[in-house]
Write a structure and sequence with these properties.
Layout (H helix, E strand, L loop, with lengths): L3 E5 L11 E5 L15 H21 L10 H9 L5
Antiparallel strand pairs: 1-2
Length: 84
């Protein structure tokens, strides 16, 4: 919402984010204080909306497709750090 931000991350995510984070954006716009432990009431209020948005996004997602690329494109992607 404009006031609250709820983040649900995968456990053991590569960025080391907590699995649940909740921030009061008006009081903490830089998102420094995770209130997930203190504000279970807000988690209960916000989670259904987050789950609904996730389900909608998954329903609208398209399947990935494998594409062949030429060597010049492959090297360009490598130089930009997109591939190894």
């Amino acid at each position: 919402t404009r006031t609250w931000k709820l983040i649900e991350a995968n456990q053991n995510n590569p960025r080391g984010l907590p699995s649940t984070a909740l921030f009061h954006l008006l009081e903490d716009p830089l998102e420094k204080r995770n209130l997930a432990q203190q504000r279970q009431d807000m988690l209960d209020l916000l989670r259904p909306s987050l789950e609904e948005k996730l389900a909608q996004a998954q329903g609208e997602a398209v399947a990935s497709q494998q594409r062949d690329i030429d060597e010049a494109t492959r090297e360009q992607l490598k130089s930009l750090g997109y591939t190894e």
